[in-house]
């Protein structure tokens, strides 16, 4: 009798747990997010782990068997408006989540490419995206999928149905705010920045309760602005007028438009900040903190723990937003808790990620001339001859001295993320070789209007190529190999334990390289430019590769003479999934 009761109890419990587990989609937990880099069966974060090393431990696919990597399916984003597709997809429990241009989000069966649901944000007239109508990805947490929209809203959707759970204003799109980055989940909070650095907005990082969307803290990144914690003013960023004169800090820029990374070990969020406003640096003497910087922020209260300014008093639109990637560096027999970033200004920085101390800066593009180098404290040694002149000192007061500066304002590297392999101990940096004519003009702040006070034309440095994928050793500072591409590189990079590096080209190829030598070992033409970040995951015992395809982004809009190298590239909007069939994996 007792046996039977125990049996019944066990059956009852089993039935109960089956009942609870019935929804096909398991919730994405905090542990799933923290362990993302170690669990190749899913991709639940932007960057394949909160540190965004974009390294997968999968090694089924290698340079020998990659010829067997074949398309499994392709999914069209549909619609007439096909613009730049810069998204990184997420995969969980056989469902792939990918965002598209014009603030769209799709849930797709990861095995078949069949659409489960689609969410289209209804965008108002008058949105002000600076650099195409892109979106870079979503975030997963518990039973929701989150993304930001071009009208500066944050949306939480039900993972199973795509129905809106909540929608919150990040800010007023009429003032120039928008949103394009992938949000980040840290300790139950959803962390976002703002886009709009060309419109005199003030950059900030903010955290919301991921369940409700209510603000927990706000941290403006420009000095003089007050932070917020639990609905009350917290602390001021910096000290008013320390590095910004007069009222200039009020429209100081520093847009936090590319999202951040997170180091759970140190409990620090790393966020980059964009150019100071306006571009015309004669109008804001001083270092202009914390524009063009990397900030380490405490995710619990929004306090700045350390800051490192890559380009103090920027005059070239060298946004400091590029991702800061935590990694452990072996140097002189010691392990250094380091972080690296390939800055728009053309230098590859390695910092101590515990305190922001400067370790090294190495040029990763040719002919840098705005600075003669970086001093031992990490501060640029400016070449004042290559800073655009003050229009007030010109004869008619309308146009300052024009200079030719390298890199061009689109940067030695732009938004497209680097990857780091703990196997090869190399960073893979998608860079571009270009310079620009740049001059300053007078400008006044006007809500919702471009706040530049500058004119510019971007030009290639070399005749045969602009794009340059470089493998950089952060310890020796050497470029170990380089792949040259005719058109500018605008896609993210992925590396794997199978000794492979993947990236896309505007010419429409997804390409794979030997991670140690740079030898090109595979390519596939997807029919339109690739400007997105590839992912890899394991499904049914096979290794898959996926990437969004669709030409666009800043280059065709802002690329001056450079845009000519990409004329004739067809637009598109799709996701491609590739797999290595089991039978070919063992060959
Ligand atoms: Ca994972
Ligand atoms: Ca900018």
TrEMBL record:
Ca(2+) binds at residues 198, 275, 317. CDD domains: PQQ_ADH_I (cd10277). Its main location: periplasm. GO terms for cellular component: membrane; outer membrane-bounded periplasmic space. Pfam families: PQQ. It comes from the Bacteria. SUPFAM superfamilies: Quinoprotein alcohol dehydrogenase-like (SSF50998). Residues 379-400 are annotated as: Disordered. Keywords: Calcium, Disulfide bond, Metal-binding, Oxidoreductase, Periplasm, PQQ, Signal. Pyrroloquinoline quinone binds at residues 86, 136, 180, 414-415. The active site is at residue 317. GO terms for molecular function: alcohol dehydrogenase (cytochrome c) activity; calcium ion binding; pyrroloquinoline quinone binding. Residues 1-26 form the signal peptide. Binds 1 Ca(2+) ion per subunit. Binds 1 PQQ group per subunit. Disulfide bonds join 130-131. It is found in: Periplasm. Residues 379-399 have a biased composition (Basic and acidic residues). The keyword Calcium applies. Its EC number is 1.1.2.8. Belongs to the bacterial PQQ dehydrogenase family. NCBIfam families: PQQ_enz_alc_DH. This is Alcohol dehydrogenase (Cytochrome c).
């Amino acid at each position: 009798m007792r046996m039977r009761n125990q049996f019944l109890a066990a059956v009852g419990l089993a039935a109960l747990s089956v009942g609870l587990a019935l929804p096909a989609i398991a919730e994405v937990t905090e542990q799933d997010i923290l362990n993302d880099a170690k669990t190749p069966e899913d991709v639940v974060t932007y960057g394949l782990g909160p540190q965004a090393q974009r390294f997968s431990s999968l090694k089924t696919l290698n340079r020998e068997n990659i010829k067997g990597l074949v398309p499994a399916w392709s999914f069209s984003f549909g619609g007439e408006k096909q613009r730049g597709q810069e998204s990184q997809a997420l995969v969980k429990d056989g469902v792939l989540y990918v965002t598209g241009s014009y603030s769209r989000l799709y849930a797709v069966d990861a095995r078949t490419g069949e659409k489960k649901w689609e969410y289209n944000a209804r965008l108002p007239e008058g949105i002000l995206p600076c650099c195409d109508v892109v979106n870079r990805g979503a975030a997963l947490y518990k039973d929701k999928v989150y993304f930001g929209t071009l009208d500066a809203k944050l949306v939480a959707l039900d993972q199973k149905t795509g129905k809106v759970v909540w929608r919150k204003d990040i800010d007023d799109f009429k003032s120039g705010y928008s949103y394009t980055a992938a949000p980040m989940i840290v300790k139950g909070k959803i962390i976002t920045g703002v886009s709009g650095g060309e419109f005199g907005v003030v950059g900030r990082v903010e955290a919301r309760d991921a369940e409700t969307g209510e603000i927990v803290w706000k941290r403006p990144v420009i000095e003089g602005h007050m932070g917020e914690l639990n609905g009350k003013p917290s602390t001021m960023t910096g000290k008013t007028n320390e590095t910004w004169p007069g009222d200039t800090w009020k429209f100081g820029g520093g847009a936090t438009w590319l999202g951040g990374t997170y180091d759970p070990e140190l409990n620090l969020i790393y966020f980059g900040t964009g150019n100071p406003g306006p571009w015309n640096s004669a109008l804001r003497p001083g270092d202009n903190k914390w524009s063009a910087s990397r900030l380490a922020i405490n995710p619990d209260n929004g306090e700045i723990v350390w800051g490192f300014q890559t380009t103090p008093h920027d005059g070239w639109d060298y946004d400091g937003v590029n991702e800061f990637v935590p990694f452990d560096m072996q140097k002189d027999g010691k392990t250094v808790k380091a972080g690296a970033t390939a800055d728009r200004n053309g230098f590859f920085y390695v910092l101590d990620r515990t305190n922001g101390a400067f370790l090294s800066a190495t040029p990763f593009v040719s002919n840098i001339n705005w600075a003669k180098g970086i001093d031992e404290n990490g501060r640029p040694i400016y070449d004042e001859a290559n800073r655009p002149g003050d229009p007030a000192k010109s004869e008619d007061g309308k146009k300052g001295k024009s200079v030719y500066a390298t890199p061009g304002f689109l940067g030695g590297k732009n938004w497209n993320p680097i990857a780091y392999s703990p196997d090869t101990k190399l960073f893979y940096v998608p860079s571009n070789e270009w310079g620009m004519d740049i001059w300053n003009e007078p400008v006044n702040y006007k809500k919702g209007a471009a706040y530049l006070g500058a004119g510019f034309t971007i030009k290639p440095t070399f005749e045969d190529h602009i794009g340059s994928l470089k493998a950089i050793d952060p310890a020796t500072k050497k470029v170990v190999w380089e792949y040259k591409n005719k058109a500018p590189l605008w896609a993210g990079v992925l590396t794997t334990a199978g000794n492979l590096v993947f990236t896309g080209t505007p010419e429409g190829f997804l390409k794979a390289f030997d991670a140690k030598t740079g030898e090109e070992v595979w390519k596939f033409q997807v029919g339109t430019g690739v400007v997105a970040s590839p992912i890899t995951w394991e499904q049914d015992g096979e290794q898959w590769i996926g990437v969004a395809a669709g030409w666009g982004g800043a280059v065709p809009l802002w690329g001056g003479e450079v845009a000519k190298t990409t004329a004739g590239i067809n637009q598109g909007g799709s996701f491609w999934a590739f797999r290595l069939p089991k039978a070919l994996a063992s060959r």
